[in-house]
Amino acid sequence: MNRYHFKGRLCGYICAECPEPFANLQVRLYRVDKQRNVAALAVANPKETFAILDDDQVQARKSRLLSKVETDAKGNFAFELGENYAGEAFEVDVYCRSVPRRKVEKEPPKPRQFTITTLQPRYRKTEEGFVAVWDYCLPYRFWCAVLALFDVWTICGRVTDCKTKQPVAAVKVRAFDADWLQDDDLGFAFTDTAGKFIITYSGADFRQGTWVDVELIGGPDLYFQIEDSAGSPLLAETQIDGRAPARENANNCFCVELCIDEPLKCELTAPTGCTAEEPDWAAGINFVRVTGTASGGGFGAYTLQILKSGSPVPGVSVIYPGGGTRGTVPVIAGELGQINTTSLTDGAYTVRLVVNSAGPGAPAICTEDVDFTLLKAMVYMNKVGKITTDPQPLDPSAELRVTGVPKAIGGTISIEGAAYVYGCIDRKIRKYDIRTKQVTAPGTEPAQPATDDPIPAGWNVIPSLPLEYTLPSQYQPWTRIGPAPRDLINSWKTFTTGGTTYYALKAGEWRSTASGRYSFLLIVEDTASPANHRYYDIQHIWLDNKQIYDTVRIVKFQRFIDGVWSDIPPCTDWVVSFGKIRIVGLAWDPIIDEAWWPPVVPNDNFSHYRLDYWKQFGSRQVLLGKTFVRVPALPASPPVTTPTSTDAGELALWDLTALDAGAIPSPYISPSDPKIYRGESCSYSLQLFATDSTAVNDNSTRHHRYHQVAVKIINDL
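User: That's the sequence. What structure does it adopt?
Assistant: Structure tokens below.
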């Protein structure tokens, strides 16, 4: 069975530029009466087929009902037709239990139904069946006739600036009926960003006078008053305006254009008082949000400045809505911009809003200042184990990286950053600590808590922390941890100078022992009352304290005999005629956590191994340069077991013939290092070195090992 989908949107015009959706009405589809000319009806203009139906007409078409659906708040409808329908034309009616914007009354009008047109949908075949779309807006003379049946009276208008003709937003428009005894207040509305407004009222709002009903027929005589958000008048029409021919005896759908000489408006509502910075993790900055109003007649643009002691602070950027170097769109009781406060110190500041008019000539200027106190809340970790957080410390997804490569850390670790909350009299740092928690599965790293969130449970505090400021004497310029980065692992100490004892910070370190994926959480609390504010910064790192001592060693040597590599017994003197020697051993580093598979850097942080040798009292020679593949290789899947001597593999081949210096010359001169003459012998040392890439003890070293073996080589050639 074919499925037919008929959908679209219906609306009606109040006037030519004022459509409204057929919200929450019922659309009914009827089969066409067989006695009527379907082809002629289907091509007829809806203006010629519209009709409001009486009860008998509605009842007469009941047997031809094909389907019915309710529209949504935007006038959208959707039918799914299948059974007993094959794509033919149908009549489109709308059934109204009520209409949009009708006031609730004790005795509502009876429901009404009107027919729009006979429609032959233009279906197209899709994966879901046959689909046709029909959007239609009923002309205002028809829609207003329907509204009149429900006693819905509407004023649709627009407010502009008289000089610039630009729309005026967020002003209050109130409508009145000029009555003989007492003017009727018909209601009010606020203009939108396009300057448009709609006021809805009923006949009862203007038909009753003070003592007797004096306006029994016809419509109201309309005049308007406009005021701004503060209640100041912008337009004050009177009864005389309502008696004008264009306003007198208005229909139930009335459209009007109003204009005002609106002054420029500048108003700042924030920041005020003690204002804390907000972090923008993506941009790596802190900012203060500025809100208020910049609008008015002839609006051109606005700018924001920040001042200290009355003078502009240089180098402070402002992020305006939509970008650019100034605000170019009017703002009414909204966000004007964000001031980048990253480089500012805490303390008292002034924000200045300047609004300029558009057009030629000297612009009109509206200026407003607001004072506030900047609370610097610099809470971040930018280095852990002397490795920098990348791309920047305010990013919760940052990792420890060196030249873009993730880095694991281990051993004794310092942490640098800021735990800085200062600027307001009643708000400064009270205490801070750093906590750690292991991440046991990929993708389960905890998110950074939002400011003032409860402290999460299950974290371990790094020893020597928390650091608490419990005495006034502990608040000194040199005990401020930030805003520039400095050591975060601290305890209190004292020093005495000039007979006075002062508190100071004693930097410390954390002796890490664990290995795995970990999250570090910096928690800072301030002294705000009655509830402390909390600030957070999180960093996710790899800890590696797995040593490689037992898995880096030369296990044995082999020579090639009869097509097979055969072991050379320990303590055997080598002869150059052995040719190539196979060096067998281990150069292996464990991965940090098998839960992350397959392992990648830095979980797999094996760096390299190399082989060197030297003749007794000779200089070091490179046998094999840096080789970045561990021996033996990791298995294809976990578990990963630590290799033993039986798992050793080939580290390198050593061609002994390269040591041949030829026959002993006469007179005798020493052979070139590291060679030996034929018939001579010498001791050689062979050294294996392997290392991982973990930054150990504040990036001062790596996990590594040297393993050295001595052999005697005889040149028997």
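The CA atoms of residues 437 and 668 lie 69 Å apart.
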